[in-house]
Design goal:
single chain; 295 residues; mainly alpha; two-stranded antiparallel sheet; two-stranded antiparallel ribbon; 4 strands; 73% helix
Length: 295
């Protein structure tokens, strides 16, 4: 094939991939934003996301030598934990709702005594990682969405959605600044494409947007009516831990020797590829917000 024809074919392929990525991103953002308008929609969507992500994760680790994780039980357990957190934080259920989940974890530990696997330690480790790395972080959405004031529990979409918005803004800012100014690699061993200039640029853009949030939301009583400094602190927290979440997933893929965690999202890879930043951003947001309330 002539060189000119090769370049034309590559350009056409890149354009097609860009269109696919854009369409997927539009539907993805629309689904996330719309689901937060109703608590039931939010719970159902992220319960599905939790299940799909755990299923993807356990499938990847099961391809490793001497690893045999029970995909079905891990996935069902993670989804159940998400629903349990939603029920508990919304005031629908008592703390007893977590008992079946704890029993399931005990079963997954004890079952290795009878399965006669070559390396049960790996099975235990990956089983618990599916819960700690995926199920627990996603369940923190419920902690942010359902706020208690005395005996009253209210649903608020502003804080959990802001985590996603800050992550999206950070990604966009990091990409633009990194493309234009990127010279110094942030973590070349794990993610050669990331630069300090891009990360700093994305962080500054998030700080600017976070400082505008109080004026946009007005006098809404969200976690004690956060001020400008509190929102900026949340933005910085999301940027730092979201970046670490991205790097952690990159290390995970490099360890497994894969480029994408899956192909469920056209042009964007798998569930872990799409939600990698949130797996650290949401727990860090919970810690940050409840810490400043105690100060």
């Amino acid at each position: 094939m002539p060189l000119r024809q090769k370049k034309k074919t590559k350009k056409h392929k890149d354009m097609k991939n860009f269109i696919v990525r854009t369409i997927t991103a539009v539907f993805f953002v629309a689904a996330i934003v719309c689901c937060f308008l109703r608590p039931l929609a939010m719970v159902l969507l992220f319960a599905l996301v939790t299940g799909l992500t755990i299923w993807e994760f356990t499938g990847l680790v099961n391809d490793r030598e001497n690893v045999s994780v029970n995909r079905m039980i891990c996935t069902v357990a993670g989804v159940y934990f998400f629903f349990a957190m939603a029920g508990f934080n919304s005031g629908i259920t008592s703390a007893a709702v977590f008992i079946p989940y704890l029993v399931t974890l005990i079963y997954l530990m004890v079952a290795e005594l009878y399965l006669k696997q070559t390396d049960p330690i790996h099975d235990w480790a990956y089983t618990m990682m599916s819960q700690l790395y995926i199920a627990l972080p996603f369940s923190m959405i419920n902690v942010l969405a359902f706020q208690s004031a005395g005996n009253d529990i209210t649903y608020t979409w502003h804080v959990p959605l802001s985590v996603f918005v800050f992550l999206w803004i950070n990604d966009a800012g990091a990409y633009i600044c990194g493309s234009l100014l990127g010279r110094h690699k942030l973590f070349p061993r794990i993610s050669p494409g990331k630069s300090w200039e891009g990360s700093i640029g994305g962080g500054i853009l998030v700080i600017v947007v976070a400082s505008l949030v109080p004026s946009i939301l007005g006098n809404l009583d969200i976690l004690g009516n956060l001020g400008i400094l509190e929102w900026i602190g949340l933005g910085v927290t999301i940027v730092v831990f979201g970046t670490w979440g991205d790097l952690v997933e990159s290390l995970f893929k490099r360890t497994l020797g894969i480029k994408d965690s899956g192909n469920i999202l056209p042009g964007h890879g798998g569930m872990l590829d799409r939600f990698d930043s949130t797996l650290m951003a949401f727990p860090s947001a919970v810690v940050y917000l409840y810490t400043i309330q105690m100060l």
